[in-house]
Amino acid sequence: MPNLKAQYFTLKNLAVVTTLLLFFGCASIQTPQGGPKDTKPPKVLSMTPKNQTRNFNAKKIVIEFDEYFNLKDEFKEFSISPDQEKTPELKKRQKRLEINLKDSLEKNTTYTLNFGKSVADVNEGNVVKNLSYVFSTGPEIDSLSLSGKVINSLTDEPEKEVTVFILPLERDTIFGKKRPSIYTTTDSAGTYKLNNLRKGTYKVYAVKESSGGGDKIYQQISDEVGFVKEPIVIDKNIENVDLQIFKELAPEFRVLDRKLNNDGSISIIFNQQLKSPKITITDPPAVDVGKFVHFSKNNDTAKIWLKDLSFDSVKVAIQDQGKVLQTLNFTRGKKDTYTRDVTISDNLLGGKLNPFQQLTLSFPFPIAAADPSKITLLEDSVKRTAFEVVKDSVDFLKYYIKYPWKNKRTYDLKLAAGAFTAIFNAKNKDVTKRFSLESSDAYTTLVLNVTVPDTSKRYVVQFLNEKKDIIKSFPVSKNSKVTFSKYPAGKYMLRVIYDDNKNGIWDTGNVKEGYQPEKVWYLKALMDLKPNWEREDPLVIPAPPK
């Protein structure tokens, strides 16, 4: 007789095994799914004693958050106003932040603790912005406020994450030397508000620190700055105190970077835009003969090629407007070797040549000679010889290929090895460039009838692309026409500079001298200039904003 009990257990075990296999099999093909990224900073649940406590006499403040947090750069970010000789001690206890006051407190005084960006969550580093704690040792809390907006003086765009601070007039001398105690940061719209201020007279500043900053101390070499020239008397809530930030010009000339390149050239970067720069090799003087010097468009960078590299060391004098600014020493080893690769770049855009330009070839070294016999031009695969190879009259790094280019033709420019010879007998390798002529129908013209608000002043009308790069500038001082002609169709915007010193460029401000940057006005609506189109528009320049 069959053992029914044994069969029952066998079937039962089989069912269990099958179920487990199905479970683990299903589980094995599942991919763990991550949830949405945490973008919320820790939330304050409580403050003990309560924020805005009057007649404060505690020695410790406890702030409790809804999640675990980290303290970051608290020695830079945290401050207490008024300052204390013994800085409060910050301690992290689970989800609580303890602030131990180490110094005695003044009577009838409002204190503000600013935490800056020191408190952030553990996982994603989301910062608790503008966290502060206020208390008073007397029966009243200072309740005055100052608010406004910070914009970029040149782009006219709001600036976020800018530190705005005030200094009591008697402490204005600490600007650029010590960290301020009363500060806040702007939001995404560039707005700020300073609360719990004491009645008094203050100077107002804004500082946008470069990456790697964070100490809230203005550094001219790297930071942008804004200021209100006249002191502000705060005896009531004040609104609309707006600031424009700008990058100051360096007050004193300095070399930011210098190096002897592996191709034998010398590169020097300045901290200023020089007006009339000159480079001279003062020692040994014979090396100065036959040198090549190329300055950048803004005259803030120089590149030097010396024909004689037999020196052990060389002295390079940097001059501007006839005055020697600095002398540099460069040394080289007698066994040093250099690599010179004569690459050839061009002004083609997407394989198209601008019909209003000649084909331009640019080189990384001064070119000593060109050999047209090693240059072949094909037009629809047919060899053409009626082209010219012309050296730029000023820029020794450029050559032009001149030819009556035609529409709907395909061109192949073949530059054989040695077609161009640079200094030190360096030669190019084989290069072929294929292109066609862009149709003139793809270009546009805009005529502006400009009306100025004051004919005794001067203005600069600038065409900008969508990235606000300058395409073309026109100085104007009277009602006149400005023609933006033969430019690629596309979207442009207009900017007007109120050129107070009539030098044709935008000038920045200076904190020490107390002058603001030159004002700008934007016609911010993008102008969509159509291809093969000529149009005429009015441009009425408003009076400069106050």
Automatic annotation (TrEMBL):
Residues 1-29 form the signal peptide. PROSITE patterns: PROKAR_LIPOPROTEIN. One of its GO terms (molecular function) is carbohydrate binding. It comes from the Bacteria. Keywords: Signal. Residues 38-137 form the SbsA Ig-like domain. InterPro entries: Carb-bd-like_fold (IPR013784), SbsA_Ig (IPR032812). The keyword Signal applies. This is SbsA Ig-like domain-containing protein. It comes from Pedobacter ginsenosidimutans.
